[in-house]
Amino acid sequence: MNRRSLFALLGAPLLLTALGAQAANVRLSAGEIEALLTGNTIIGTWSGAAYRQYFAADGTTVYQPESGKQDEGRWRVNPQTNDYESWWRSTGWTPYALVRTGTGGLAWVNGDRLEPFEIRSGRQME
Asked: What is the CATH number for 31?
């Protein structure tokens, strides 16, 4: 067996594992997103920075970075696209997909990255 064939043979299971893990991410529906977020707080990281965010039933949201100033915005879900949409003074309305990861966690889809978070019941802001 030549080297190329050996590397292909050894590398195939790794590639399949990586593709399988990515395929295991399941996009949440608009109804699932609304039920998950309404009246609750998430704790997570965004581009490596820790934060908390509360989602009120009236469509307002409060974002608190670990180190920084609290900001208030709006949120909604889009039943046609199954996107979460947030509004901030600096960006306007921006859509994001939410997924349940292959390991059972939750994450925002931010371009080609997943931004993990956990749900906490009620308003859990400091």
From this structure: 2.40.128.640
